[in-house]
Amino acid sequence: MPRIPTAVIAATGLVGGYGVARWSKKRSLGGVALAAAGAVAVKEWERQAGGATAAALGGMYVAAFAGSHPLAKKIGAWPSVCAVAGGMALASWVAVDRRRCDGTA
């Protein structure tokens, strides 16, 4: 079975976490979704690219979540979440997933 790219996992965690929190009106439920996807992403980053890359991308994932809050005050909630999810997906693809695409892994 093909693996889901880590870029998709990370972006889905950020968008999905916000969506769950917003629609359920339970921030903690959104946090569970965010954390679960983050844990899966970190595990895959470590497996595919090593601990240093996993730690760096894990830190970026947390920073993206935190940074989406002040950004939302400037551009709105959904645009903010989509922007940080896109940035996180790009970072994950560059650091991990593109190796699978270009055959260097």
Rg (C-alpha, Å): 14 Å
**What is the N-to-C order of secondary-structure elements (H for helix, E for strand)?**
HHHH
Give average pLDDT, whole number.
94
Distance between the termini: 17 Å
Q: So what's the overall shape?
A: globular
Q: How much beta, percentage-wise?
A: under 5%
Count the strands?
0
Estimate percent helicity: over 70%
Specify the biggest β-sheet: none
Give the low-pLDDT segments: none
Number of helices: 4
What's the SSE blueprint?
Blueprint: H1 6-24, H2 27-49, H3 51-75, H4 77-102
Helix pairs in contact: 1-2, 1-4, 2-3, 3-4
Explain what this protein looks like in three dimensions:
This protein has 105 residues and is mainly alpha-helical. The protein contains four helices and no strands. The longest helix is centred in the C-terminal third of the chain and has 26 residues, at 77-102. It starts with 5 loop residues before the first helix and ends with a helix. The model has no long low-confidence stretch (mean pLDDT 94).
